[in-house]
Amino acid sequence: MITANILNLFDQAIYYGTITVANGRISHIQRLGPERPGEAYVLPGFVDAHVHIESSLLTPPQFARLAVVHGTVATVSDPHEIGNVLGVAGVNYMIEEARRVPFKFMFGAPSCVPATTFETAGAAISVQDVRQLLAMKEIGYLAEMMNFPGVLNQDADVLAKIALAKAFNKPVDGHAPGLMGDDAQRYIDAGISTDHECFTYEEGLDKARRGMHILIREGSAARNFEVLIPLLSQFPTQIMFCSDDKHPDTLAEGHINQLVVRALDKGHSLWNVLRAACLNPVLHYRLPVGLLREGDPADYVVVDTLTDFRVQQTVINGQIVAENGQSNIPDLRSEHVNQFHCSPKKPEEFLVTVDQSDSAGIIRVIEALDGQLITNELLLEPKEENGRIVADVERDILKLVVVNRYQNVPPAVAFIKNFGLKQGAIASSVGHDSHNITAVGCDDESLCRAINLVIEAKGGLSAVGGANNEKALPVDKLLPLPVAGLMTDSGGYDVATRYSSLDQFTRQELKSTLAAPFMTLSFMALLVIPYLKLSDKGLFDGKQFTFVSLQSIKQ
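^ that's the sequence the OP posted. Answer follows.
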């Protein structure tokens, strides 16, 4: 039993009362009088409406252990990251791990594994696989339909997966960055009800007016809260909050609770904000999450005030899972499943020879954008040495490499701007969506060292100091990710500390100018996000959806 100020989101009322819990459910709510300032407040728990648990670098138990401290009781979780590595077996692994802790994970059936045919993934999830997954009670929806060209062009497999979701009466998540107007309407008419990829207010407004639910994303790399939050007052029943991809350092600091405070600071209605954070995801996805009604599961959060929302307690099914900044979810170890088959590389594998037919001497360069998943295409004159194109640290044009981790084939090499490294290299086996090894660096020797650290560990994040430089830092750093090359079952807070150290080294010592260099790196092979990306098979134009050459560009 708890006595406090109770928030009723349906009546939009606050009153002082008592909540009685029996067998994990709310058996009785007694109203004792009007709101009592100075007393604690009880409200439904927060829900992350779209997240890839794998991107936290933590297994589901370790993710839950951190999230509950911030009042999160449930997530709408797309397991397509591990699906790209291990297929349906990876999805089942996430479900089994989630069962080990008192946290409400709702998983989706990955719709696009592999995401495209222009990259090498470790597995495929077929129409029949989707049918079997959607039949499971743990699978609540068809996960983000990234192949929006397939929807618009009526690809048979794409339409079959959407039809299955409709047959099982389960919603379909969207993923259509930049899609507007008639094409957006066709995408919605196909049965897709959400989008978390809007990166301009105009795009979000267009889709919301067409009836789509807009998930305002604020993760570790993509941050769209500021431009999209004005939509909340216009479409309060259609807005949800999500993180999409959140690294352990930022998860340790806060989660959906931070967006609640920020939205209130901007003057939004308390009730609209809590609809987005608590109510709308539960109603849309039909989550088995209580909403502070008699008979509901006893899922709620106790906070000190309705301004700072400092969490005193998080309760799931009547169990106190976090209290005063301490998690009560146990620190659990997990099985290390994986698929990693490539051999160590040599520096000469990353050489780029000048195309002598290119009289203009211009190359395509990816422009990374801080806080965004989209990139730009730049046409720049390269730095040449001894008939080869090399990184140009002075102009911040660095070498980008993608190494196929599932088989031994030559790596793909391109160039990228805006990482800002002054020496060394970083590498990661978290490379959306196929999760090959992605690396960026100032010289081939450093790239090779960083990549080989990841290969030898069969997954991880690495950073190395420079090579052939009198000011080089003789440092190699590695955060191993032994679960599918994506996650670790080490204690979440320890992982957060180690990740912070790696990130700090990359920004302060290697001089990266990005807010989250490893998170940004992980999206440089994500072909379904425009405009220019690099897969293990080559440089890819995400707008035209075709491979393009590095050289032979005419001005």
